[in-house]
Automatic annotation (TrEMBL):
Keywords: Kinase, Membrane, Transferase, Transmembrane, Transmembrane helix, Two-component regulatory system. This is Sensor histidine kinase. Gene3D superfamilies: 1.20.5.1930, Histidine kinase-like ATPase, C-terminal domain (3.30.565.10). The chain crosses the membrane at residues 36-53, 60-82, 88-112, 124-143, 163-187, 199-222, 228-250. It holds the Pfam family HisKA_3.
């Protein structure tokens, strides 16, 4: 919105100047050449406004607006000068013509097409050109240049100095314009085939401008009144570059403006792509409304495809999960690694991917990475839950179910044979063992001590049954605190897994567990004196699942270990208070 508020008034001032100036000079009714001049000057502010509003991140639109503003004010100054005596304010306005010529002859071709210098080597040319333009304009003001009120000779020292400074700035501007034109030709020759056309239009526009400048200097008859040849020259100067830029913009698809057919009539289709802010806003809303991870990836791929006007786009997770928007044909032309995966881009419907497209894709990297990470996390949690369900099912089938089958068979046999006290005692012991196994299985799902006594009591109960020396330390205030079931469950099973690893894999003789609450975080630390390991090499499947579980709660799990120096597992989750 801010770009509209600034670009609109600038374009209106420039347009009003190029229309009012010729009318003020000649009066009404104005001759045809004045109207032709005004009409051919209007595309420059219009093009600058369109680029500045629709692509505010490109400096090129603002550059064209600056050139248009200088042109409009200078033409307005000439028109006002024709209606009255010369004034220093009018002289300053007329001197802006030097700014217009400098910008259009040097900076418009130099910064084409996206408002950036071709390379660092052109910085000196840019600074020298800016200085030359400033000298040319300042010299005109000091000289008091006014086509209708020229100073009388001999000139005063100030006017003479202004004339010399103006001449020096103008000469330097011409030299720099030639240098820039040569550089533009080199860029055209060295450009890729897809970009060669846009540079060709700019080279043609610069050549036409140069011819117009020569004609204008030879056949200029003062003010805005030109002979036929001079009129051709001034029209070439003010109209060639805007026309060339307009064609190059359409060809380059900076505005996604293309020519199409509707019925039997030719028309322009303004299929403007959304800006970076619009894409991010729409993507955020789409991801919030889509809880399913696969659907989130599909929305992300569709946003990339729509935002860059691609034939297809794909999002790939690190585990190989891949979602494609559109019909993939051939390999991707651009890949962007993001957190947890990558984004693949197919070719555009028209034209190559530009630097603007790459910047838009890079702007999507952070939200895309978060969406990919979220989808991957949800997928891993779902897989972990499915694996846990199968483990419980397997334990029930292979353990408790078989014991119940054997108990039922024993009861049937006892009834059939009239079993004595010894057989009944055996059956009673089998029933007790089955009940104990069921309780142990239930404790593995959610221990009763955790539900009844809280986290500290459940951890102490778990560690009291270990065959090695184990200490549990926690502040007294934590024992009475209760937290959400998902937080207590995540921390309990993290401690249980870490303790089990210390016994099974580390060969530890002592384990220390610390529970604490500080800074709004519930922390658990499990340290052992085992043999240790390199955390980068083993496949920590159990801890990896718990790490995902903590990550889903906004927490974190880290493992510190070295061979021969034991292991320390640290976990935390955010809690209220």
């Amino acid at each position: 919105m801010s770009s509209r508020l600034v670009a609109g008034p600038l374009a209106l001032i420039a347009a009003a100047g190029v229309v009012a100036g010729p009318l003020l000079e000649s009066g009404l009714p104005a001759p045809p050449q004045q109207w032709v001049f005004a009409v051919l000057c209007l595309p420059l502010p219009a093009l600058g406004w369109l680029l500045a509003v629709r692509r505010p991140e490109l400096r090129y639109g603002w550059l064209l607006l600056a050139a248009a503003l200088a042109l409009g004010l200078s033409v307005l100054g000439i028109g006002l000068s024709a209606r009255g005596d010369g004034h220093v304010l009018l002289t300053a306005l007329i001197a802006l013509s030097a700014v217009f010529y400098g910008l259009t002859w040097i900076f418009v071709p130099l910064l084409f097409p996206d408002g950036r210098l071709p390379s660092r080597r052109w910085r000196a040319v840019a600074w020298l050109s800016g200085g030359a333009i400033a000298l040319h304009a300042a010299g005109n003001v000091a000289y008091g240049y006014d086509p209708y009120h020229l100073p009388a000779w001999p000139l005063s020292p100030v006017r003479l100095a202004g004339a010399l400074v103006s001449a020096a700035g103008q000469l330097t501007t011409w030299v720099m314009a030639v240098v820039v034109l040569c550089g533009l030709v080199v860029r055209w020759r060295r450009s890729e085939r897809a970009e060669r056309g846009q540079y060709a239009w700019m080279v043609g526009g610069m050549a036409a401008t140069a011819v117009g400048a020569v004609l204008l200097s030879l056949f200029h008859f003062g003010g805005l009144r030109y002979g036929a040849v001079g009129l051709v020259g001034v029209l070439a100067v003010v109209g060639s570059l805007p026309a060339a830029i307009a064609v190059a913009v359409v060809r380059h698809r900076l505005l996604d403006v293309r020519v199409g057919l509707r019925g039997s009539r030719l028309h322009l289709v303004f299929d403007l792509r959304p800006t970076v802010d619009e894409v991010l806003s729409d993507l955020g809303t789409a991801l919030e409304q889509t809880p399913e991870p696969v659907e989130q990836l599909a929305r992300l791929a569709a946003a990339v495809r729509t935002g860059l006007d691609l034939r297809w786009a794909a999002v790939t997770l690190a585990d190989g999960t891949r979602v494609v928007s559109g019909e993939q044909e051939g390999p991707p032309v651009l890949e962007l690694p993001v957190r947890g995966g990558r984004i693949e881009c197919g070719p555009r419907d028209a034209g190559p991917l530009t630097r603007v497209d790459r910047r838009l894709l890079e702007a999507l990297a952070v939200p895309a990475g978060l969406a990919i990470q979220s989808a991957g996390l949800v997928t891993r949690l779902v897989n972990a839950q499915e694996a846990e369900r199968r483990r419980i099912e397997r334990n029930i089938h292979d353990g408790v179910q078989q014991q119940l089958v054997a108990l039922i068979a024993g009861l049937e046999l006892a009834r059939a044979t009239g079993a004595g006290p010894e057989m009944l005692a055996n059956l009673r012991e089998q029933a007790r063992q089955t009940l104990a196994d069921l309780r142990e299985l239930a404790a593995g799902i959610h221990p009763s001590a955790l539900s009844q006594g809280g986290l500290v009591e459940a951890v102490e109960e778990r560690c009291s049954r270990l065959p090695v020396r184990t200490t549990v330390a926690s502040p007294p205030s934590l024992r009475a605190r209760r937290f959400a079931d998902e937080i207590e469950g995540a921390m309990y099973f993290t401690v249980s897994e870490a303790v089990a690893n210390a016994l099974k894999h580390a060969g530890a003789s002592a384990v220390e567990v610390r529970l604490a609450l500080d800074g709004g975080r519930l922390r658990a630390t499990v340290a052992d004196d085992g043999k240790g390991f390199d955390p980068r090499t083993p496949a920590r499947r159990g801890l990896a699942t718990l790490e995902d579980r903590l990550d889903a709660l906004g927490g974190c799990l880290t493992v510190h270990s070295e061979p021969g120096k034991g292991t320390r597992v640290e976990a935390w989750v955010p809690v209220d208070g």
